[in-house]
Amino acid sequence: MESTAELLTGCAGDAGQAQQAVTEGAPACPAPGGEEVVIPGGPGAPDAPGAAPEPADDAWRERAEAAETNVAAMGDRLQAVESAASDLRRMLGQSEQSRQIDRELLIAGVVDLDGARRLVDERLAGGATVLEAVARVRERRPLLFAPRVRGVRATAMPAGPAPSAVDEAANDARESGDRRLVLRYLRARRGER
């Protein structure tokens, strides 16, 4: 088999010109038999560095670029979803804390829920727990809460006549501790005499 330089000698003239043709990417030369000879490493050779990219290379490049674009878009979507999840977690925590405040205030017998909640929120901003804040607000602002009922006294019902209106007003005032009922009792007592 002939060397590349020998093949090119017939096409370009001498071996120096043949080598230059190879490096410059000269076209294939017709062989003495009339067949076209492909120069290794030259244009038209399958692994030539200057060869035009095959259509499959372009398809892979386009797919890679599309994948990179998709990755960037998915990264943006992931950040948006993580941000939304963070906001939802924060809102859930606030909602749970608000429910706990309301529950503790109702257990404490709050009369004005909104006003007491604002005061408890101020205490919570100072670093107190919900229970401490409710206890502190109840201690400082007792008018926001219903009066505490001390113990319930069991009294036997007399076997005698039915209680009068004054007795009923006295029992109501004693059991509830409400000022209005105490005033009603006093008026009823004054009117009895």
Key traits:
single chain, 193 residues, mainly alpha, 3 domains, two-stranded antiparallel sheet, 7 helices, 2 strands, 2% strand
Overview of this protein structure:
The protein is mainly alpha-helical and 193 residues long. The chain has seven helices and two strands; from the N terminus they run ααββααααα. Strands 1-2 form a two-stranded antiparallel ribbon. Strand 1 and strand 2 form a beta hairpin. Helix 4 crosses helix 5 and helix 6 packs antiparallel against helix 7. It is rod-shaped and about 115 Å long.
Q: Mind sketching the topology for me?
A:
Elements: H1 4-12, H2 15-24, E1 29-30, E2 36-37, H3 55-107, H4 113-125, H5 130-140, H6 165-176, H7 179-192
Antiparallel strand pairs: 1-2
Strands across the major sheet, in which order? 1-2
Strand content: under 5%
Instruction: Report the span from N to C terminus.
Output: 145 Å
* Secondary structure tally: strands: 2
- Spans of at least 5 consecutive residues whose pLDDT stays below 50 are none
N-to-C order of helices and strands:
HHEEHHHHH
Number of helices: 7
Gross geometry = rod-shaped
Tell me the structural class.
mainly alpha
Radius of gyration equals 49 Å
The biggest sheet, with number of strands, parallel, antiparallel or mixed sense and barrel status, is: 2 strands, antiparallel
Name the helicity range. Answer: 55-70%
Any idea how many domains?
3
Overall pLDDT confidence: 77
